[in-house]
């Protein structure tokens, strides 16, 4: 067994586990997009970033690909991690703003604006379809082509592959193929129809506290809500 610290708790993990697998074992939720339990790890979306190390010697790593090691210190929800996740969601939104999966992530993590021009390319290069085709359907009909801004997913020579059996596995697992609720011609690039409340404990403790117990137990959310309730009561009296 490997001993490490996970959000200030002393935990143990099996040899060969990743940080993501360890966090899931202890009931901690780390958001993922390009990760799927039935497929090999890729680490392309960077949504599962966590912060490792202590003091000034910390860095962000993808939890789905980083193996646990003895004495490792991991924080899954620091302010730095949350800001990085929001940035990645913004970038993915700019590429595929019509994806329901990405719009839901934006609402869940409080992304209310997109500071990048919408490209509507409808492919975030998560590689799920490539791995699904090769590893589950044994087709290998599609793959990555080119590098940098020219990188794309296609068949060899961009013609119909003889290996493709039209199984639909690539479309089933693709997050960009799941169209958002408001249809193909939405009013704005960021939907936020399912927006959740931003946690207030991050600004106080520099780290999420709700994972430890019921939401609001740390007190910061309650203190934020109390003035609003008083304002409503005063308004009713007037």
Account of the protein in words:
This protein is of the alpha+beta class and 238 residues long. The protein has a domain of 133 residues: Ubiquitin-like (UB roll) (Roll), CATH 3.10.20.740. The protein has seven helices and seven strands, in the order ββαβββαααββααα. A five-stranded mixed β-sheet has the order 2-1-5-3-4, with helices on both faces. Strands 6-7 form a two-stranded antiparallel sheet. The longest helix is centred in the last third of the chain and has 18 residues.
Structure characteristics:
29% helix; alpha+beta; 5-stranded mixed β-sheet; 238 residues
How would you summarize what this structure contains?
The chain is of the alpha+beta class and 238 residues long. The protein has a domain of 133 residues: Ubiquitin-like (UB roll) (Roll). It has seven helices and seven strands, in the order ββαβββαααββααα.
Gross geometry: globular
Strand content: 5-15%
- Uncertain segments: 224-232
Q: Remind me, CATH topology of one domain?
A: Ubiquitin-like (UB roll)
Q: If you average the pLDDT, what whole number results?
A: 88
Oligomer state equals single chain
Query: What is the CA-CA span between the terminal residues?
Result: 64 Å
Largest sheet: 5 strands, mixed
Q: Give the C-alpha Rg.
A: 21 Å
Structural class: alpha+beta
- Helical coverage, percent range: 25-40%
Q: What is the CATH architecture annotation of one domain?
A: Roll
Q: Given the structure, what is the number of helices? A: 7
- CATH top level class name of one domain: Alpha Beta
Order the strands across the largest sheet as they lie in space.
2-1-5-3-4
Number of E-type strands: 7
H-E string: EEHEEEHHHEEHHH
């Amino acid at each position: 067994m490997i001993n490490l610290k996970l959000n200030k708790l002393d935990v143990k993990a099996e040899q060969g586990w990743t940080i993501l697998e360890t966090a899931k074992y202890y009931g901690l939720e780390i958001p993922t997009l390009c990760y799927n339990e039935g497929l090999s790890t890729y680490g392309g979306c960077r949504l599962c970033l966590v912060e490792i190390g202590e003091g000034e010697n910390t860095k962000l790593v993808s939890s789905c690909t980083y193996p646990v090691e003895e004495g490792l210190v991991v924080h899954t929800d620091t302010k730095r991690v949350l800001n990085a996740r929001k940035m990645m969601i913004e970038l993915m939104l700019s590429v595929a703003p019509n994806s329901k999966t990405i719009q839901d992530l934006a609402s869940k993590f409080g992304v209310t604006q997109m500071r990048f021009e919408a490209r509507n390319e409808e492919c975030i290069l998560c590689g799920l379809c490539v791995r699904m085709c090769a590893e589950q359907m044994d087709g290998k009909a599609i793959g990555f082509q080119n590098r940098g801004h020219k990188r794309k997913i296609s068949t060899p020579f961009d013609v119909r592959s003889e290996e493709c059996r039209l199984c639909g596995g690539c479309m089933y697992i693709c997050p960009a193929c799941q169209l958002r609720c408001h249809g193909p011609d939405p009013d704005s690039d960021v939907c936020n129809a399912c927006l959740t409340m931003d946690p207030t404990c991050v600004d106080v403790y520099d780290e999420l506290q709700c994972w430890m117990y019921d939401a609001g137990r740390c007190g910061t959310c309650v203190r934020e809500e109390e003035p609003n309730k008083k304002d409503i009561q005063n308004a009713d009296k007037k």
